Amino acid sequence: MATKNIDEMSFLDHLEDLRWHLIRATLGVLIAATLAFIFKKFIFDTIIFGPTEMDFATYNGLCQISKLFGIEDTTFCADKFPFVIQNRTVAGQFSAHIWTSIYAGFIIGFPWVLYQLWGFISPGLKESERKNSRGFIVVASLLFFIGVLFGYYVVTPLSINFLANYTISEKILNEFDVSSVIAIVRSSAIASGFVFELPIIIYFLTKVGLVTPLILKKYRKYALVIVLILAAIITPPDITSQIIVAIPILLLYQVSIYISAIVVKREAKRQSKK
């Protein structure tokens, strides 16, 4: 069957095209999820439960930094966390295995999902727009994975360390449910991954004329407030953790201003040649 020209496709044809892209994207995620399901020992013991052990890389680094400055820190230099992980429901571990595999499949298969999304959008773009957007999948995937790593190695351990050592009474024993621990790792990693897509989002918003560098600069102080609120949402309520998370987000915002300026400059140059 011959492929229809984009101009000849009806609304139903576009829906059919979208359906097949969604099916292919879902199949890719499911294949990656199956691999994650098979290698459950590595996914759970090494990745998910890694930040619950005091020999985790982040804690070792923060412990060395505190010693370097002569600070007696018992939270990052302790032998073990004052909590145990437990399962309190009959199907809890199986459910955790299934859903963790699906989320891991989405993270692993993110470039493939973007590829399918781009495959649906790109035929509707002009040749010059496709040329200027070359490398979109690579850059967007790279930013997402950097964000995931930031969430895993920075946000997750700071959250677990703070909440594990926070107590209102010595009479209370911390026995964390496995689903709660997984939720912290999952939400921190995926949320940070999407936050790091900010430059890509600003790029396309600038392309369609919804955002300009002047607007981004004008509302920079409001963006700062939003960033601090966002940092407060995805981190524990201590000021140090919030600052650590807020700094890279603010840097991303500044990078987004430069990207927006470049896009506007290119558009103005292209218009002048007409």
UniProtKB/TrEMBL annotation:
<feature type="transmembrane region" description="Helical">
    <location>
        <begin position="189"/>
        <end position="210"/>
    </location>
</feature>
<keyword id="KW-1003">Cell membrane</keyword>
<feature type="transmembrane region" description="Helical">
    <location>
        <begin position="222"/>
        <end position="237"/>
    </location>
</feature>
<dbReference type="Pfam" id="PF00902">
    <property type="entry name" value="TatC"/>
</dbReference>
<keyword id="KW-1133">Transmembrane helix</keyword>
<comment type="function">
    <text>Part of the twin-arginine translocation (Tat) system that transports large folded proteins containing a characteristic twin-arginine motif in their signal peptide across membranes.</text>
</comment>
<feature type="transmembrane region" description="Helical">
    <location>
        <begin position="243"/>
        <end position="264"/>
    </location>
</feature>
<protein>
    <recommendedName>
        <fullName>Sec-independent protein translocase protein TatC</fullName>
    </recommendedName>
</protein>
<keyword id="KW-0812">Transmembrane</keyword>
<keyword id="KW-0653">Protein transport</keyword>
<feature type="transmembrane region" description="Helical">
    <location>
        <begin position="96"/>
        <end position="115"/>
    </location>
</feature>
<comment type="subunit">
    <text>Forms a complex with TatA.</text>
</comment>
<keyword id="KW-0813">Transport</keyword>
<dbReference type="InterPro" id="IPR002033">
    <property type="entry name" value="TatC"/>
</dbReference>
<comment type="similarity">
    <text>Belongs to the TatC family.</text>
</comment>
<feature type="transmembrane region" description="Helical">
    <location>
        <begin position="136"/>
        <end position="155"/>
    </location>
</feature>
<feature type="transmembrane region" description="Helical">
    <location>
        <begin position="21"/>
        <end position="39"/>
    </location>
</feature>
<keyword id="KW-0472">Membrane</keyword>
<keyword id="KW-0811">Translocation</keyword>
